[in-house]
Write a structure and sequence with these properties.
Residues 11-150 form the Tc1-like transposase DDE domain. InterPro entries: RNaseH-like_sf, RNaseH_sf, Tc1-like_DDE_dom, Transpos_IS630-like. Keywords: Membrane, Transmembrane, Transmembrane helix. This is Mobile element protein. By secondary structure, this protein is an alpha/beta fold. It has a single domain (2-27, 37-177), classed as 2-Layer Sandwich (Nucleotidyltransferase, domain 5). 32% of the residues lie in helices and 19% in strands. It has six helices and five strands, in the order αβββαβαβααα. The chain has a five-stranded mixed sheet, with helices on both faces. Helix 3 links the parallel strand 4 (88-92) and strand 5. It is globular, with a radius of gyration of 19 Å.
Length: 188
């Protein structure tokens, strides 16, 4: 991260978010019975993203089926195509489709270093904060009539990241990570 902040390396945090068409309720309280519209079905909108740790630029690979190793390889190729002479490091979790021979060979061929986080440590993956932000901005307390409107809401939020949401992201995407070493646990 220090090399990235000094302009000597490009670091991307990579993860997928599987948005499912549903009604995401906020606060509902009333004296009378209230019927809340809900979407039917389990359609998924999968966004595999790579977030630049310094510039907050987002590179995505999107589909409505499944995120697989070939999806990760397509994302690697998009990142490599961005050019630049700096070494590239991708910080990934331990999803099976990320930690396989196909992805490792593609990364090696493209000159991209893969850095895998410890298992069960979403607090160390910067892009997890972005997915939480997108869900809050585009989905929480909203009903989307159909899958197309659901997709559009997510796409508009992602498109507005560098403009409309720039200031919010600047405070959200800091390089301060909580680890278990600096957490005070009280004896029960």
């Amino acid at each position: 991260m220090a090399e990235a902040r000094d302009g000597k390396r490009t670091v991307y945090f990579v993860d997928a978010s599987h948005f499912v068409l549903a009604s995401f309720l906020g606060w509902v309280w009333c004296f009378v019975r209230l019927h809340v519209r809900a979407a039917s079905g389990r359609q998924r909108y999968n966004v595999l993203g790579a977030l630049n740790a310094v510039t907050h630029e987002l590179v995505t690979e999107i589909n409505t089926t499944y995120i697989t190793a070939t999806s990760v390889c397509a994302l690697l190729r998009k990142i490599a195509a961005l050019g630049g002479s700096l070494p590239i490091t991708l910080v990934l979790d331990n999803a099976r489709y990320q930690r396989c021979a196909l992805v490792e060979h593609t990364a090696k061929a493209l000159g991209i270093e893969l850095l895998f986080l410890p298992s069960y440590s979403p607090n160390l993956n910067l892009i997890e904060r972005l997915w939480k932000f997108v869900k809050k901005e585009a989905l929480n307390s909203r009903h989307h009539q159909d899958f197309k409107k659901f997709q559009e809401a997510i796409d508009h939020c992602l498109a507005d990241l560098p403009t409309k949401h720039r200031e919010k992201l600047a405070t959200l995407m800091t390089h301060k990570f909580q680890t278990w070493d600096n957490v005070s646990l009280l004896d029960a």
